[in-house]
Design brief:
single chain, Rossmann fold, eleven-stranded mixed β-sheet, alpha/beta, about 20% strand
């Protein structure tokens, strides 16, 4: 039987703040885009549950602190054709531990335990699509997060669960593809193949890692592209390796069309740059000025392959970085080191 949206269930989780120093700015905004897509797919609002941290005012939103109770009590009391789960937020241990908001000691939900719980007979949805969009964060000093368990059970016959887990800077591509989808449930093989192609074509080691498990349990992983190798020193002396400085890159950023669109364009540019990096400027309140772009590029240059990551963002945001604009071409040439001795 074909799964029907009106008899399906959707669970959207967006964790920006865990209360333990781990932050992924932009997760709530991304969840709003998923909710808009679910509405276009005609999933009834009373069959959508959205858990956010921080809490937002919405007809379907709830505090993320109630997520575990929902998964173990409310969700099993329902049933239907298909279950769609979208989770955005920070993760630990190579994405296997999904950070939860907690008032006291930090907590984390085991990813594989969550997926196993959804496949049990307790959760009565035969078709299941799970999208995980997480950013790896480092553990804070102090006690390790408490591992939250949902329960035990055997896999129910007939469960068809597909899982796509994107880790890193894949959010934009993932959401663009999701919003273009018109089939229900979401065709995850197409989603995985398209994202895989984008990773391979980009050659950007900062883009992220993609893993996929199909309904038969076969797991496929697309690793990060290899980082560019440093050339061997020439016989006549050490080779000069070009690494553009953040001040030059920030100056070129100021020339892109977003700056000429006034405050609105600059606001969009700074917010987009910030959201792609998982809160690497904690505590910073942007004023949307040239100083902001200098701060952003300086922070980029403090992480490995920062200039390649910035170049990847420029290529992924054509509405802010039109590829035919002379200023954008100059910025990308500078980031790629073209024509620089």
């Amino acid at each position: 039987m074909t799964a029907r949206p009106e008899f399906s269930r959707a669970v959207v989780v967006a964790v920006e703040e865990t209360g333990a120093g781990r932050r992924v700015p932009g997760a709530v905004r991304e969840a709003a885009r998923v909710l808009d897509w679910l509405a276009r797919m005609r999933v009834p609002a009373d069959r959508i549950a959205c858990f956010t941290a921080p809490e937002v005012a919405s007809a379907v939103s709830r505090p993320a602190t109630g997520l575990v109770e929902f998964l173990t009590a409310e969700l099993p009391a329902t049933g239907g054709d298909a279950l769609f789960v979208y989770w955005a937020g920070p993760s630990l241990q190579d994405g296997t531990q999904l950070c939860l908001p907690a008032a006291g000691r930090p907590e984390a939900l085991d990813r594989d335990g969550l997926l196993a719980w959804l496949r049990t007979s307790t959760v009565r949805y035969p078709e299941q699509v799970v999208l995980l969009d997480t950013s790896d964060v480092t553990a804070e000093p102090g006690p390790a997060p408490t591992r939250v368990e949902l329960g035990a059970g055997s896999p129910a016959p007939g469960r068809r669960q597909s899982v796509l887990h994107a880790r890193g800077q894949l959010t934009r591509s993932l959401l663009e593809l999701l919003e273009s989808a018109t089939a229900w449930p979401l065709p995850t093989p197409w989603l995985f193949q398209t994202l895989s192609s984008r990773i391979a074509e980009s050659g950007d080691p900062g883009l992220g890692v993609l893993s996929y498990r199909d309904v038969d349990g076969q797991t496929l992983t697309v690793p990060r592209p290899p980082a560019p190798t440093t050339p061997e020193p020439a016989a006549g002396g050490p080779a000069r390796v070009h690494r553009p400085g953040h001040r030059e890159a920030a100056t070129l950023l100021r020339a892109v069309p977003a700056f000429r669109q006034g405050r609105d364009g600059l606001t969009a540019l700074v917010d987009e740059l910030r959201s792609e990096f998982g809160g690497f400027l904690d505590g910073w309140t942007p004023e949307h000025s040239f100083r902001d772009c200098l701060d952003v590029t300086r922070a980029l240059w403090e992480i490995e392959d920062g200039e390649q990551i910035l170049a990847g963002i420029c290529r992924a945001l054509p509405h802010l970085f039109p590829p035919d604009a002379r200023s954008v071409r100059a910025l990308l040439a500078h980031l790629d080191g073209e024509g620089v001795s």
